[in-house]
Amino acid sequence: MNIQEALEKKQGEITIHGWVHRERGNNNLRFLIVRDTHNIIQCVIKKEDVDETMWGAAEQVKVEAAVRITGTLRVDERAPTGVELTATEFYVIGESNEFPLTKDLSAEHIANNRHLWLRSRRMNAALKLRAACFKAFREYFDGEGFYEYHSPIFQATQTEGGSELFSVKYFDTELYLSQTWQLYAEAGISSIEKIYTIAPTFRAENSKTARHLTEFWMAEMEQAFVEVTDLHTHAQEVIRACVRYCLEHCKEELALLERDTTALQAVLEKPFPRITYDEAIRKLNEEIGMNVEWGKDLRTLEEEALTKLYNVPIIVTDYPKEVKAFYMKETPERPECVQGFDVLVQGVGEVIGGSQREEDIQKIIDALKREGEDPSEYEHYLDTRRYGSVPHGGFGLGMERLIAWIGGLDGVKEAIAFPRTPTRYNP
């Protein structure tokens, strides 16, 4: 049985397998802390209780050796998890060399051994939290009648901004790694109307902050016959769905990560405030005492300042047109603004960016020209406006930022198995 099942059983004869997390002892007694994906348990191996071969293996076993142990369970409050396993049989399944990760290691050494650091209890908890968020996102949109849909990673044009593109050689031409599924999603809604995806995303941002990666996972949705306020609701409710699922199914992981769950509980109880960009600038300048010029995109500093005014995420709407993508629809009676919005959370900043999409083909062409793009390279996208365009919109959710926020992690690099940054691409 797995270790969590053994802890719950508390007594009786059982067999477990796992990896040696810690080891100590003397010539007659060995104490091993053994871990598997579920938990840890203290195992005691007495020389008098096992045969000579087993005792020899126990004396030589090193941290991270894979083992199988049969023995008797008993409650012992001195043990790390309150139950101890006294061995009657001990086998080494896979030997270990001297493990290169011990206490008090530098961040650089840990990064160089990321493939081994995944075995740490902290990373184990973070990866389980990640899986929970992915599952909750899917369950929410499945429940809303959406279909999972996939777009290509190799793309011929930019979507979010040319300076952030990774170019790749594709036979005899040059293509780009996907910044978003956006343009291909808008083609899909004319077929199945309500779609979502979870896929890798690539941004060539030379940023070394705790909230940026060059390769991350975006959970995106797109919907036909929708208004921007409906998108706000979806954004609020899918975040709540992820928080609710983690609170229900990841109690041990959140406890290990020392996350204050009372802060997460508030997210389920209060609606997310919705403020316009104009209101955000006023609050930053008048209430917080900053000096932010209208028309500038909000930086991490401003986003963090805004979120401190609330104890739940906030939705900022109606950004200036000049700081948003070409496909966003103008705000009625405010042509200098668009119906774009961001969801900001405490300690992380933006986790969702979305918008109502522009339906007017000429406005899209004009916007592309303003950005220095050749509209002829976007013919497949423009066709979505030529043949039965409808009101539609969607958003993208940065999963690593969401996971980092829910788990109270130090940054997005803790929310993914192998983080990619401008200086880190191996292992």
Low-confidence stretches: none
Number of strands: 18
Distance between the termini: 33 Å
CATH superfamily of the largest domain: Bira Bifunctional Protein, Domain 2
Provide the structure class.
alpha+beta
Number of helices: 14
* CATH fold name of the largest domain: BirA Bifunctional Protein, domain 2
Overall morphology = elongated
Percent range of helical residues: 25-40%
Q: Which CATH class of the largest domain applies here?
A: Alpha Beta
Give Rg in angstroms. Answer: 26 Å
Task: Give an account of the 3D structure.
- The chain is α+β, with helices and mostly antiparallel strands and about 425 residues long.
- It folds into 2 domains: about 90 residues, Nucleic acid-binding proteins (OB fold (Dihydrolipoamide Acetyltransferase, E2P), Beta Barrel), CATH 2.40.50.140; about 300 residues, Bira Bifunctional Protein, Domain 2 (BirA Bifunctional Protein, domain 2).
- The protein is about 35% helix and about 25% strand.
- It contains 14 helices and 18 strands.
- A hairpin with a 3-residue loop joins strand 16 and strand 17.
- The two termini are about 35 Å apart.
- The relative contact order is 0.11.
